[in-house]
Each structure stands twice: as C-alpha cells, then as structure tokens.
Amino acid sequence: MDKKKKRPVDEFPWQEYDKEEFKEKYPYLAKELDEGAELVIEGYRTKEEYEEEAMDFSGYNPTVIDFIRRCETDEEALEIINWMEDHGEITPEFAKELRIKLVKEGVRSFGSKKEWGWYERHRKR
Predict the structure, then answer these.
(1) Distance in angstroms (rounded) separating the CA atoms of residues 19 and 62
(2) Residue 85 near residue 92 (C-beta atoms within 8 A)
(3) Which of 4, 24, 61, 101 has its CA 20 to 30 A from that of 93?
(4) What is the three-class DSSP state of 55?
(5) Per-residue pLDDT tens for 19-50?
(6) Can you give the residue range of the structural domain that contains 115?
(7) Which of 31, 48, 24, 45 is nearest to 111 (CA)?
(8) Number of structural domains, the chain?
(9) 12 lies in a domain?
(10) Please, which domain of life does this record's source organism belong to (predicted)?
(11) What is the distance of C-alpha 104 from the center of its chain?
C-alpha cells in the first residue's frame, strides 16, 4: 500500500491517527490514555480567587507592581515607574518594559486596584 506524502497541515494536533502510529509517535501519551488518568482535576482557580486567598505579609516588601496597582490613572502609574527608576529601585530595562505595557494595555493590566486596607483584608489571621 502506498502512503501519501504528508503536508504540513497534516501535523496539526486535531488530525486522526492510526492507533499504532500514535503509539509509535507518542508512547507515553498513548500509555496514559490506555491506563486512564492518575490525576483528576476537579476544578481550577480564577485569577480573582487566587488574589482573594489569605497570605502572610510579615516581612513583605511591596514591589513596583504593588504600587502601580494603587494608581487610578496611567499618569499616576508612570510617575511611580519614573520614581522607582530614578531612585534605583528598578532597572532602566525593567522600567522600559513597564512603560511599554502601560502604554499598550493601561494601568489595570497590572492587576485589579488595591484599595486602602487590601493587605489587612488579605492577610492570614
């Protein structure tokens, strides 16, 4: 039997495989599929759920991102970035990356706003 020449599109993951070809190409995955999953995922966390988890802040030193998340506007965030760079708290390279993200995506791209009392509400008791 003549095998037809495969095209690049034939390598996409949704293609159908002959069972033996699949076992040959992906032996460990085939074994997992044959034996069944050992790990069962019953759910996942969303970003908001993760942020709401209680944390231990003793000895925690806020990062530039923590300060940016306190800002209301892009202009305030830019002031924070400039100040942190001028005072040697962040590198010029990192400051540039933060500015680019700020211009392209806005202040909320760094995370939800941290209101007054955020650390008290999110600490382990």
Answers:
(1) 53
(2) yes
(3) 61
(4) strand
(5) 888 888 888 888 877 877 666 656 555 555 55
(6) 47-121
(7) 48
(8) 1
(9) no
(10) Archaea
(11) 17
